[in-house]
């Protein structure tokens, strides 16, 4: 465990040195604060808690932003170090390859969590300051949204490692990472919508929900926009969630599986990779 913590600490120091942490925090805080200030108007119009409006808005933003950030942090973590020759130097020390993978993931997820908690927390604090009363259920939903956003970023971190261990060139990894982001965030839902329009009756609810959970971004959307009744009512997903037979805990487990499975595959491939 000590070795993993040392490797994670090195990744965090690199994040500070390369200004990754500062840049991510500013980006997330900037977008979140913008949505907070702009979201107070509809909240007052419909009589909903400002924090609930922010949860709906930030959930939509997170689906685009956190996966891209996760992939950009991790896509060259393995192949980039192999190209630079630093991976051979690192493996010359008494450290196993799975410890290298675990240390990198722990360091990157810490960077991502720090930026997300600080950025979203600042927006949540402004919303609470503007609210006349504190809605405990809305506060719980906001905390769950922040935590699941970190898990979503972790899922794409893991996918980025998987890409990085499967290719031989950093440029190839970058191109695949962008393609993966476009597929899961944009193309997948459009293809699913087209399938529903063309073959809606043939698919059925069960297969439709399985297809949704096959995308980490959609699993995140289901968890946040349907896991809490007040958020589901505001976002308009209350009808769809009535057909979903999974609890919030099960949806959270699906999100965690999207972290564990790609990360385990990446560690397995890396353990057998010739350097």
Number of helices: 12
Q: Please, what is the average pLDDT?
A: 83
What sequence of helices (H) and strands (E) makes up the elements?
A: HHHHHHHHHHHH
Q: Specify the helix fraction band.
A: over 70%
The overall strand count is 0
How far is the N terminus from the C terminus? 24 Å
Helix and strand arrangement:
Blueprint: H1 2-17, H2 20-46, H3 50-74, H4 79-84, H5 86-91, H6 97-130, H7 136-166, H8 170-213, H9 216-226, H10 229-235, H11 238-241, H12 248-272
Helix pairs in contact: 1-6, 2-3, 2-6, 3-6, 3-7, 3-8, 3-9, 3-10, 6-7, 6-12, 7-8, 7-9, 7-12, 8-9, 9-12
Structure overview:
This protein is mainly alpha-helical. It has one domain. Helices cover 86% and strands 0% of the residues. The protein has 12 helices and no strands. α3 crosses α8. The protein is globular.
Task: Provide keyphrases for this structure.
275 residues; mainly alpha
What's a concise summary of this model?
The longest helix has 44 residues. The protein has one domain. It contains twelve helices and no strands.
């Amino acid at each position: 465990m000590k070795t993993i913590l040392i490797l994670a600490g090195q990744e965090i120091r690199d994040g500070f040195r390369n200004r990754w942490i500062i840049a991510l925090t500013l980006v997330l805080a900037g977008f979140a604060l913008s949505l907070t200030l702009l979201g107070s108007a509809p909240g007052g119009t419909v009589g909903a808690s400002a924090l609930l409006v922010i949860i709906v808005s930030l959930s939509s933003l997170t689906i685009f932003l956190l996966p891209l950030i996760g992939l950009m942090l991790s896509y060259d973590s393995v192949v980039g170090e192999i190209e630079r020759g630093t991976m051979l130097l690192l493996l010359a020390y008494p450290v196993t390859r799975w410890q290298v993978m675990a240390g990198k993931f722990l360091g990157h997820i810490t960077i991502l969590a720090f930026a997300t908690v600080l950025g979203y927390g600042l927006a949540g604090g402004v919303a609470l300051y503007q609210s006349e009363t504190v809605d405990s259920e809305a506060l719980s939903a906001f905390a769950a949204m922040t935590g699941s956003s970190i898990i979503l970023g972790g899922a794409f971190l893991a996918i980025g490692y998987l890409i990085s261990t499967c290719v031989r060139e950093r440029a190839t990894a970058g191109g695949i990472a962008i393609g993966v982001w476009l597929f899961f965030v944009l193309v997948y839902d459009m293809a699913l919508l087209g399938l529903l329009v063309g073959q809606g009756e043939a698919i059925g609810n069960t297969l439709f929900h399985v297809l949704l959970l096959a995308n980490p971004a959609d699993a995140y959307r289901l968890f946040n926009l349907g896991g809490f009744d007040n958020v589901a009512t505001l976002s308009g997903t209350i009808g769809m969630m009535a057909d979903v037979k999974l609890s919030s805990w099960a949806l959270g487990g699906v999100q965690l599986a999207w972290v564990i499975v790609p990360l385990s595959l990446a560690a397995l491939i890396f353990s057998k990779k010739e350097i």
